[in-house]
Amino acid sequence: MMKFLDHLEEWLITFLIGGATLIIFTAVMHRYAAGVPIPVVQDWLLSLNLSWAQELCIIMFVWMAKFGAAYGVRTGIHVGVDVLINSLSGRTRAKFIVFGMSAGAFFTGIVGTLGAHFVWENGAHYAIFNALGLATGDLYPGPTTPDLEWQTWIVYSAIPLGSYLMCFRFLQVTVGFIRTGELPHHDHGHVDGVDEDEVPVDINPYNMDDDLHMHDLKYKKRHPEQQVGDGGTAADKGEPK
Q: Torsions phi, psi of 188, nearest 5?
């Protein structure tokens, strides 16, 4: 179960962003192709109604944002001001981190609960009772979206689901920190799939040999005839002996 939860956000976000990209591409191509006066084909394209595409993509992006926030908690990519926290001693720092994570779980839990109550009263109550064949009485069926004509409680379900998942991630990170003393960390400068060259300890990449321009680590490989730097000879610099 935990293995499934550990990749839940990635699967959802991948599906949503892939679907939204495909829908937007199709809608744009349809809009331009429908303006081309091709017999039969133009009439067929004009008969297709894709006015719902924009609304669906907006909904998908809202869901991406909510579950992306939970993914950010799990992987440590949320921006945080931790200068003061990192300046504290070990035990004091740990207490503040646990307090901060617990506060995040408490807050997202409240948001999830309020969101669930709103969704329930906005039509979910009626829809569930109706699906189970129970008497709905004077329950409010809830409004629908303008283009897709979906029940809005389905769209708003992203709030309780995403917030509860975010609350779970806060608790998960807190427990992991208490056990190991480590927090999830993400290197914002790292690009997946790009290998990073290790900087040799005996080379200063910021050394300015000509007092004007910095040379990168591959300078000597690109210019073997100009081996300049500390200890360089006249022959290395290309100067006459």
A: -70, -20
Burial pattern 168-196, b for ≥16 Cβ within 10 A else e, equals bbbbbbbeebeeeeeebeeeeeeeeeeee
State both tokens at 127. Answer: 């829809």
Record the tokens describing residue 231, joined without a space: 């200890």
- As a residue count, the chain comes to 241
Q: Burial of 147 by CB count in 10 Å (0-12 exposed, 13-18 middle, 19+ buried)?
A: middle
Per-residue model confidence as pLDDT tens digits over 85-135:
878 888 898 999 999 999 999 999 999 999 999 999 999 999 999 999 988
Instruction: Check residue 86 and give left, alpha or beta (phi > 0: left; psi -120 to 50: alpha).
Output: alpha
Quick one: how far is CA 181 from the chain centroid?
A: 25
Q: Over the stretch 39-87, which tens digit does the pLDDT of each residue have?
A: 888 899 989 999 999 999 999 999 999 999 999 998 888 877 778 887 8
Return the closest-CA partner of residue 174 out of 184, 162, 186, 185: 184
DSSP-H helix ranges across 120-188: 125-131, 152-156, 158-180
Cα distance from N-terminal residue to C-terminal residue, the chain: 74
Do 34 and 46 touch, CB atoms closer than 8 A? yes
**Could you tell me the CA-to-CA distances from 102 to 88, 92, 159, 165 in Å, in that order?**
19, 15, 20, 14
Phi, psi of 226, deg, nearest 5: -125, 75
Cβ 9 vs Cβ 70: under 8 Å: yes
